[in-house]
Amino acid sequence: MQTADQLFETLSRLRFGVDEENLRAYVEGVMPLVEEIQDLKREKNAIILAHTYVPPIILYSVADKVGDSYGLSKDALAATEDTIVFSAVRFMGETAKILNPGKSVLIPGTDAGCTLADSITADEVRALRRQHPEHVFVCYINTTAAVKAECDVCVTSSNVYDIIERIESDKILFLPDRLMGANIIAEMAERGVQKEILLTDGSCYVHEEFDPNLIPSLRESYPDLYVMAHPECRPEVVSQADYAGSTTQMFRAIASMEENRNYLMLTECGLVSRIEAEMPGRNFVGTCQLCKYMKSNSLEGIRRVLTSPREEDFVQIDPSVLEGARSCVDAMFRYAE
Length: 337
Ligand code: 13P
Ligand code: SF4
What we know:
- By secondary structure, the protein is α/β, with parallel strands linked by helices.
- The chain folds into three domains: about 5-110 and about 295-315, 3-Layer(aba) Sandwich (Rossmann fold); about 115-205, NadA-like (Rossmann fold, 3-Layer(aba) Sandwich); about 205-285, 3-Layer(aba) Sandwich (Rossmann fold), CATH 3.40.50.
- About 45% of the residues lie in helices and about 15% in strands.
- The protein has helices spanning about 5-10, 20-45, 55-60, 70-80, 90-100, 120-130, 145-150, 160-165, 180-190, 215-220, 235-240, 245-255, 270-280, 300-305, 320-335, and strands at about 45-50, 65, 85, 105, 135-140, 155, 170-175, 195-200, 225-230, 245, 260-265, 285.
- Strands 2-1-3-4 form a four-stranded parallel beta sheet, sandwiched between helices. The protein has a four-stranded parallel beta sheet with strand order 6-5-7-8.
- β3, α5 and β4 form a beta-alpha-beta unit.
- α2 (about 20-45) runs parallel beside α14 and α4 (about 70-80) packs parallel to α5.
- The radius of gyration is 20 Å and the shape is globular.
- The mean pLDDT is about 95.
- 1,3-dihydroxyacetonephosphate binds near residues 158, 204 and 247.
């Protein structure tokens, strides 16, 4: 656990816009809550998994594992504690429960939705399967357990292109992200892979906001600019990026690059904060975007689910969908590794 001084030091590297005095007062004020959560974790035998996009205070004070949706799924599968507190959004908690159903999985976010996961229902997938019986149904991990149970293979932003390429069939229906779907079609063309790829109409409200027209003018102003984009961005954005990948892949890529360089990060602001905190020296231009669902996580929410969880804070998966959803996620691990 970080001391108040260490936490202050880490948070002071972020461009919060908070002056030193106020940041010091904030850290001192929050330490009793951090210590209470650390005690609760031991008492309840709980592990806290946190996505890179949640507020930085969670990442640097109480989280046991931080990562992207793929890495955190593997952490959830490997967890031996009785309780997993999944500080992210609900579909990630559902994936943890699918993979480790004997554990209690708690969701501390007060608004833990996701515009992608909320864009399609299991009934809609069943109807699509009747219309396209020959297609392999590939779902993004940003889907509910019930939707996963209707699909054949799940993917994340870290493995989507390789898995689509490796699937034996040349007929794929990818859901629910139409922008990632357009990026898949472009990447398959680039790789010379011939497949018919059908799409549905979801999108991430955070990543679809990035404007492709801004990139050329920023490149003109900053000739050394390195552009990184999440594959949920529009294809007109991803095609102009120097690197596209999951949050952890972008984090690792930047770790291997020069420090004194200008970067444009076309993703949620949490990734920029992590890089500022853990790899100071990089300069960021342009703006990132906030996900209100990820940012609905808080230390208070974590304490609440560890002390007095309500029924809706527990992830419950209908037993009738558990097996189908597990086989969809297991197929991802088989294709990915
Ligand atoms: P990652 O797999 O990169 O964590 O992405 C999940 C997500 O929701 C991005 O918006
Ligand atoms: Fe969903 Fe977009 Fe938020 Fe990721 S950033 S959790 S895809 S709404």
